[in-house]
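Subgroup meeting minutes
Present: P.N., E.W., G.H.
Scribe: E.W.

1. P.N. recapped why we're keeping a running log of single-chain structure predictions: easier to compare across weeks, and new members can see raw inputs and outputs side by side.
2. G.H. added today's entry (412 aa).
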Amino acid sequence: MTEAAPRTTAWFHCFAGIAGDMALGSLLDAGADLDEVRGILERLPVTGWRLEVESVLRAGLGATRAVVVVSDDVVVRTYMHIVALVEEARLPPRVASRSLATFAALAGVEGELHRRPPERVHFHEVGGHDTLVDVVGTAAALEVLDVDEVLSSSVATGTGTIRSAHGFLPNPSPAVVRLLRGAPTYGRDLAVELTTPTGAALLCALSSGFGPLPPMRVESTGFGAGSRDLDGLPNCTQVVVGAAMSEEVQPGHPLVVLETNVDDATGETLAHAVEVLLGAGALDAWITPVLMKKGRPGHTVSALVDIALVGSVRHALRSETGSLGVRSWPVERWAARREFDTVIVDGMPVRVKIGPGRVKAEHADAARVAARTGRPLREVLSDAESQWRILKGREPGPEDRLPPRPDGPEPA
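Output recorded in log:
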């Protein structure tokens, strides 16, 4: 039996944030062939643009800047218009799915912010030719480099305010903050939009994890330049591409378990505490019944946390339980590989998560469709998963008939 080829991983180092053009530029700098990327982009049924690259210096660091030159007037597209353009282009399957997942993430967040269904969202800054080319171009460059998995570092953001189609907004923008829910982030004292909604959406849709450089055999690296110089900081996104080390030899992802014991909280309070912990960035949270000193029944409230978020989750755990102390210990996690895709159910996007041996629709997306159509949630979940199998030409197996789990972060 021949040994399976190692999976190719791309790790984005967002020390100065990330934007669509910076992600694309970094992949081109890392060796993605420009002509091949252009060839895929030219399948889009859109004219009036061209992709150019230039070699620049950012704080003395050599980088590639991807520039989309637009000759047409500014275009405001709806989410469904963009979906139609991507589907009409007949892109390679992974390019199409990664592009659609990115725009679905943007539509979902814009819908939340503006109180309207995602399918009715109008994209302003992210609806023009340049964003379409940045997103599909990034997906195309990942395909040219044969990248199987995308990972990311913690994400830097700026401060102050930024100008948008809706006027001045706080920096990071509301869309960026919502897209990066659950991801480790930090702010730099720079009045610059370091991370844009497009960059955040690419990470939200494509990254299967956040943390330091993962174990890999490095094959190439590249820097994608932003449009301006920053004082003392290279305005770049770095990407490192390489072959992932086999699970047998690579260490698990370092995490921390936080927990506390409580004996005076109601079930409603404990359930709310779990929701707050997940909202604070915990990867998972759970309740365990225990017998405490003097025979008192109680509960242990536990949370699995990325090292970068220990402080905020620990504060949430103490605040919500009223505990006088929190304990912790380090753990390692070997998470199963997973990918993300998007299907359309009743005209609305539903994200699906694909792991070894199964596909699972995202509960929150399916619940939104069920609420707006009046259909039972279980039917929407089943339709979304069946549509993905049909699109991929895959018959369901016994492992796909497992009952859907409640929505929430992937358990340990």
